[in-house]
Amino acid sequence: MIPSILLISARMLAFMCLLMSCSGYLILHEGEKCGENKEGACESGLICVPSEPPMDFYAEGICTRVPNCNCSEFQCPPRRRSCYSRMVTDPCGCCSHCPKRKGQVCGGPSWKYGNCDSDLVCALTVGIESVTSPQTGVCKAVPNHLKNVLVRPPCPVQYGCNVHVGTCDCYSDQSCEASFSYNTYDACDKVLTADRMYFYEEKQPDEPEPPKPEYVCNEYGCEVQSCKCVCGYRKCVYFSTPMYEADCCNLLKESGCPNATCPEIPAPPCPADSFISEPHIEPGQCCPVIPAVCTCNFQTCDPKPTYCPNRGLPKLIVKGNGHPGTCCDRYECVNE
């Protein structure tokens, strides 16, 4: 009787493992299927490209080498203490980082300059096109009538798990938002099991408690060393906000360090249909490597009129080309 019960239990456990992906973290290679209920992620340099439009959150695809993507050619940007929005992943699948805001530099080789927030599009600095690697662009808001022209790039399919109603909910999602708390079912289940053991395990009165592993907190920050801003990860200092590049560079300027003085580049005057982008400064540096420039503000672009008074017809006066001053199509109502 007992062996039969053990056999049934073993079969049930194997069946549950198939349902919940009890296997360890898998590295998938080029050409292998990914996404949907397949645990694991494509190896570095590959992303899961959907074979057809996903239904709801679930998407099945193939590990594919994306053109012009090479994650090994740069280091991911450092993670700050917090983001003003949810973390995002770049279309190459290289890095998770804080999303870029309107007017900030984006794109670049393998998207090294980062991806935009969910309501923005990384558009060319000059022109009416979205950025593709290795092009560099600026994050912009796009009106509805231009969203078919300025489209967001496809995002990689990511697999992961979140805790839902006390269980590990694992699935795949084609999204550029890093929305998973755990990469694998095993990692999620380990945390839940530890929590359950903490509440339900009966401790022996004379049994000493095992030593808890020391948690080491590391955060990104900068400090002044010999007229330089030395930035990197170091031990957290509680009740203190880490100093980032801007504050560190201000200290260098106040102390008279010569390398903190950047050449002044006057901002160019921009037409009414444009705005000034933010200069891009590399982590740990004080001077921008990409200066501020005039770039089109597509929110000033009006759609083609659908109605003209006095039975007039809309006539195209200026064809927009994405250059400051001629960013948008301009129409006038004329009477034939």
TrEMBL record:
Cellular location(s): Secreted
Keyword Transferase included in the entry's annotation: no
Cellular component terms (Gene Ontology): extracellular region
Superkingdom classification of source: Eukaryota
Keywords linked to the UniProt accession: Disulfide bond, Membrane, Secreted, Signal, Transmembrane, Transmembrane helix
UniProt keyword annotation of Membrane present: yes
Residues of the IGFBP N-terminal domain: 70-122
Transmembrane segments: 6-28
Record GO biological process: regulation of cell growth; regulation of signal transduction
Listed Pfam families: IGFBP
PROSITE patterns listed in its UniProt record: IGFBP_N_1
Alphabetized InterPro entries for the sequence: Growth_fac_rcpt_cys_sf, IGFBP-like, IGFBP_rP_mac25, Insulin_GF-bd_Cys-rich_CS
GO MF annotation list: insulin-like growth factor binding
Annotated protein name in UniProt: IGFBP N-terminal domain-containing protein
UniProt lineage: Eukaryota, Metazoa, Chordata, Craniata, Vertebrata
